[in-house]
Amino acid sequence: MKFEQGACGLLPIGVVIIVNSERMRSPFAAKEAEFHRLLTCLPAASIVLGMRAMIVKEFRELVRDRRTLGLLIMMPLLLLVIFGYAANFYVSSLKTAVVGPQASQVAAQLPSLFNVTVTQSSGTKADAEKLLQDNKVDVAFVAGQTPVLALVNGSNLFAAQSAVAALNKAGNKVKTQVLYNPDLKTSWVMVPAIIGLILTFIGTIITSIGMVREREAGTLEQLAVMPIKPSQVILGKIAPYFLVASVDMVIVTVLGILLFGVPFNGNPFAFALGAAIFLFVTLGLGVFISTISQTAGQAIQTAFFFLLPQILLSGMIFPLEAMAAGVRWIGYLLPLTYFTMISQGIMLRGAPITSLWLPFGVLTVMAVVVFTGATLRFRRDLAPGTPASPAGKQPAAAQTVSTA
User: Fold this and answer.
1) What is the pLDDT of residue 330?
2) 53, part of any domain
3) How far is CA 212 from CA 96, 218, 312, in A?
4) Across 211-354, where does the E strand assignment appear?
C-alpha cells in the first residue's frame, strides 16, 4: 500500500484522494476539509472514509437506476394491494340457473349466495348441463323432482367449494352433483393453469433475455443491414422459443394427465390453437421487453413486472369472482386469464370452441396489438431515425462507382 503525508502523519494515498475529491465537490469546502482533517487523526480513518465514499457511491448509482429503484418502491406497494384486495378464496356470489317445472318457486327460496341469472320453466337437465359446460353459470338447479337436483360446475374450484358447503346445509332437500371435477381436486384445476404459466415464463423472460443478448454482444446493429424486414427478424428470433414452448406444453399436459389424472375431454386442435395464439401474445411481450431493456438484468426486472400480476390476478391462485372490482378488472387485462379459461374449458368441461369465442377473440386482439407494437419498436431500434430503403436498390454513389 502506498502512503502520503497527511495532517496526522502518513495516510493511505486512497484516503487522501477521497478527501481531496470530496473537498472539491462540496460547497462547504472549508468546513468539510476541517472535518476530514480531524477524521484522519482518528484510528481506522481509512476504513471509515472508504465506507463513507462507497455508501455515497452506491446511493448515487441506485438513484440513477430508475428501474431498480421503482422495483424496490413499487413492488411492496403492489404486493400489499394485491394481497389486500385479491387474496380471498371465498366466493360470495354464485351465478345460478334454475330450470324445469316450478323453477320460479325454487329460485325464490334460494339463499342470497345464489344469484339467479337464468330461469327456464321448460328447461331440462340437459339444458342445465349445457349452461354449465359453456361456463355461463356456476350452479344449475333442476326443479320438478324430489329432492331438487343441484348441478355444480367443478371446473370453477372455489365457486364449487362455496356452493357445496352451502348446499350441504340444506340436508335431504337438495341432491348435489358435481360435474367436471367430482372430487374437487386442486390439481385438476391447477394443471391447465400451470400450462399457461410455463408458456408465459418462456415467452416473456426467456425470449426477452435472448433478444437482449444481441444488443449486449453488439450484433443487433448487424441486423439493420440485412435485406429482411423487422417482422421477419422477429419471427426468426422467436421461432425457436415457440417450438421449445410447444414441446414443454405437450410434456406438461401429458404428465398432468398421467400423474394427476387430469382429464382431457375436449378437442386437442382447439386447445393447440388457443395455446398458439397465447404464445404469440407472450412472445410479443418478450420482444417488447427486450426493446426497452439494455441488459439482461433489466429484461428480467421488467419481465417480473409482467409476470407477477399474471400469477396472482389471472384467477390461477385467487378466484376472480372473489376479488375487489378494481383489482378484478386488472385481471381481465391479462392474457393468462383468458388462456386459463380456454385450457380449463377444453380439458375439464370439454367445451367446444364456439362457447369459448370470447377468450379466443380477446387473445387474438392482444396478439395483433402486442406483436405490432413490438415490431414497430424493434424497427426503431434497428434503424433509429432512418427510413428503410427498398431492398435491391443501391445508393446513387454506389451505382456511380459501379458504372465507372
Assistant:
1) 86
2) no
3) 49, 10, 27
4) none
Place of cell 413499487: 74
* Per-residue buried b or exposed e for 313-342, using 16+ beta carbons within 10 Å of the residue's own CB: bbbbebbbbbbeeebbebbeebbbbbbbbb
Is 256 within a domain? yes
Assign residue 125 the CATH number of its domain.
Answer: 3.40.190
- Encoded amino acid at 181, one letter: N
Identity of residue 171:
G
- The three three-digit cell numbers of residue 152, written as one number: 355444480
Give the pLDDT means over successive 10-residue stretches in the chain (404 positions): 46 46 50 56 61 78 73 76 76 92 90 92 92 94 90 93 91 91 93 91 84 75 71 82 90 92 94 94 89 81 83 86 83 93 95 94 94 82 49 41 38
Task: Provide the whole-model pTM.
Answer: 0.76
Interatomic CA distance for residues 88 and 161, integer angstroms: 13
Residues 145 and 165 in one domain: yes
- Report the candidate in 273, 263, 239, 248 with the shortest Cα–Cα distance to residue 349: 263
